[in-house]
Design goal:
alpha/beta; Rossmann fold; Arc Repressor Mutant, subunit A; 7-stranded mixed β-sheet; 15 helices; GlxA family transcriptional regulator
Length: 319
């Protein structure tokens, strides 16, 4: 393939790992296949920028002198929440020219402010999804996935999700083996599917205020293979099914069925990643009952069947 220019935009208050994570992936690809990616960085005035962690990054050039990139990377950080209007103007002008427009974390706010996410599905760090949706109602904000691709625009969740997205782009360009080699070098998984949830079911749901409902939450997590119907869970909470379902949603932010589905999926994922247990056994202990039921759940939530998920997440050790 022809060499692609990757341009990472720098600004004061950028999150350093939002920049260096994806850049290390593209740099690894360039080492593996020389002539694949040309990596450049630029800030508004070409001056060094101070990251949220206090590190200083020195850009290659001012944005005005930067080449039109094939991949325009807009990282996030505190400075991305209230972006400099000059940065927004530059991204508005140059973003549509990029073959791929990519954001990490709150970099999505910069793209949204430039109007480049209007009518598109996008994500950002879970802590800022509500804010992005409120401030930019024309954007279809999805708080769940690790990353979202809508045409040539790709947005990712917080920090390490930028690595996942960069690996996905490299896999698309150079194939799975190349991306796997880079992932091994960085000691990361290849790769979290884009629609994998940003965080676990217990973290995604609020903790219920009342002890009977908290106990039900604990029971679901500890016994995913049990009878977790609304009727059974309501009996455990000593409530009627209707009252239980209403109270559970009010106190946790999700329905009992949604919570059970996420817990079972997470349990099955952990077993696929961390054990050599067979698919049939995992489907049983995770509460799916049959491999086919688990397969349908994985395809719906992650876009990959269990065997393929395991293959991606448990690569063979490097000789």
């Amino acid at each position: 393939m022809a060499q692609r220019t990757v341009l990472a935009v720098l600004y004061d208050g950028v999150q350093s790992l939002d920049v260096t994570g994806p850049v290390e992936v593209f740099a690894g690809a360039e080492l593996l296949a020389p002539g694949t990616y040309r990596i450049r960085t630029a800030s508004l005035d070409g001056a060094p920028v101070r990251t949220t962690s206090g590190l200083t990054l020195v850009p290659d050039a001012p944005l005005a002198a930067a080449p039109d990139p094939d991949v325009l990377l807009v990282p996030g950080g505190a400075g991305g929440l209230r972006p400099d209007p000059r940065l927004v103007d530059w991204v508005r002008e140059h973003g549509p020219r990029a073959g791929r427009l990519v954001s990490v974390c709150t970099g999505a706010t910069v793209l949204a402010a430039a109007g480049l996410l209007d009518g598109r599905r996008a994500t950002t760090h879970w802590a800022y999804c509500d804010r992005l949706a409120r401030d930019h109602p024309a954007v279809e904000v999805d708080p769940d996935p690790v990353y979202v691709r809508d045409g040539h625009v790709a947005t990712s969740a917080g920090v390490t999700a930028g690595i996942d997205l960069a690996l996905a782009l490299v896999e698309e360009d150079l194939g799975r083996d190349a991306a796997l080699t880079i992932a091994r070098h960085l000691v990361v998984f290849l790769r979290r599917p884009g629609n994998q949830a940003q965080f676990s079911a217990p973290l995604a749901a609020q903790t219920a205020r009342r002890e009977p409902l908290r106990e039900v939450q604990r029971h679901i997590v500890e016994h995913p293979d049990a009878d977790l119907s609304v009727e059974s869970l309501a009996a455990r909470a000593r409530l009627s099914p209707r009252h239980f379902a209403r109270a559970f949603r009010a106190e946790t932010g999700m329905t009992p069925g949604r919570y059970v589905d996420r817990v079972r999926l997470e349990h099955a994922r952990r077993l696929l990643e961390d054990t050599t247990d067979g698919i049939e056994e995992i489907s049983r202990t995770s509460g799916y009952g049959t491999p086919e039921a688990m397969r349908r759940a994985f395809l719906k939530a992650l876009g990959a069947p269990p065997a393929e998920y395991r293959r991606r997440f448990r690569p063979a050790p490097t000789p």
